[in-house]
Amino acid sequence: MSNPFLKKIEQLNKIGIALSAQSDTTALLGQILESAQELTAADGGTLYRVINGKLHFDVILNRTLNIKMGGNYTKGVPFGAIPLTNNDGSANCSAVAAYVGNRGETVNIEDVYCDDRFDFSGALKFDQNAHYRTQSMLAIPLKDFEDEVIGVLQLINAQDETGQVVPFSVESESLARSLASQASVALTNRRLIDEHKKLFESFSKMVADAIDKKSPYTGKHCERVPVLTMMLAEAAINAQDPIFKDFTMNEAERYELQTAAWLHDCGKLTTPEYIMDKSTKLETVFDRIELVKTRLNLKAFQEIVRKHGISETEIAQTQANYLSAYERLKQINTGGEFLNDEGIDFLKFIAGKNYTNLMGEKESLLTDDELTNLMIQRGTLNDEERDIMQDHAAMSIHMLNMLPFPKDLKRVAEFAGGHHERMDGKGYPNHLKREELSIPARMMGIADIFEALSAGDRPYKEAKKLSESLKILGFMKKDGHVDPDLFNLFVREKVYLRYAESYLKPEQIDEVDPAKIPGYEPLPEA
Fold first, then answer.
1. pTM of the complete model
2. Helix count (H) and strand count (E) of the chain?
3. Which residues does residue 356 pair with via DSSP β-bridges, in sequence order?
4. pLDDT in tens, 32-72
5. 215-274+384-516 sits in which CATH class?
6. Ramachandran assignment for 219, one of left (phi > 0), alpha (psi -120 to 50 degrees), beta (any other)
7. CA 181 – CA 113 distance, rounded (Å)
8. Which is the CATH superfamily of the domain at 4-193?
């Protein structure tokens, strides 16, 4: 291909392909201006973008002066933006770039020192300070698919084969306009991608915030789990541990994991509030322990009446006995401690006691449903309620699988849906074992548990000390609940401490001795 112009067309096509493949906006900006210089043999140039009614200097290049500013170059642009409107609201058309930005027209000037249409005071001042001579200038608008100007490409001092400054030719102008069109498409696509990404990120955070606000018993769980997950991920990436030597994550993979962390509990949107907020064993719409209290009062009164003529001391003793029974029932109702055999026998004894209702019928002091709930050995949820609560993990997977995720986010459902699985396969919803779970999914499992253990903003429990939370997590590691290697990394790299310093109350942060953490295994000495 001997024709120079055809060579330029081929070069333009290659540039267009390269621009469309560029995913980094700052790198794209520099690439656009460099390509324009190369096509038109321009000594320098500036790329502006329209942001909030002003032309912002994005990239400035000059070969003679060895200037490289903005874009992804190390030196930033020190100049302020050029307003596209004057103080009176009229269009600012005094500077060439502003004129092109407002009118959307190309301007080609042979010599700026001989042109009286525009204000070149800025260029003249630059020339004086830099001992340079700005001569030919070509300014071209960048327009989006709606024909709106999104930027301006301004080139200066076209050079011939000998290096002499010449006007920009019709051929150069045509090539530059074609490049500007391709650049506009690339920038618009990049902007749309970034906007959609930002929109989805905001949507993910909105869902997490809605879940956190749905119940006071979750605190800021959905907000903190992503933070802790990414802290653990960075620790694995930077670890000296041979186990993680091959573990890496690029920017897209980090975003995928963070998105999964934000959405890990989205299934809780379908969980009934009376289950999420069940703070006692007898709570439904209200805490039914008050009904039990009424029955005990009635029972005590009936016994006193039946024993007509008993002394004040015996009356007080009867009342004290039933008050004591109520206090113990109230304590069991909180679900704060494991219910042992003695507690179960006590509940059966109370359930065997009858009282007479207003219609003269004999009824148990505890209904069958109340007895079933009070006999929950750990926590406040019965088996049916626990199944409903645990179903949120399956619902998260179901809801996320309904979304048409792009390739870069295809594992969001897998990461998010695995945070309640256990390494021994006894977790839920799919009973997956360690080898069936990805490392990011296992990371989320630890982050989910530790946030819940260490949270200091839950109304149903006191804030645990850091050492206490790690002790419980250690026992869970020994019990096959969490990944052993990630647990060791979590402790060894003090991920827990970096998190605690930002998110725990000062009184929670106590001294931690790794040697006293159950299940912790330090790296063997080299």
1. 0.69
2. 18, 10
3. 362
4. 899 899 999 999 999 999 999 999 999 999 999 999 999 88
5. mainly alpha
6. left
7. 29
8. GAF domain (3.30.450.40)
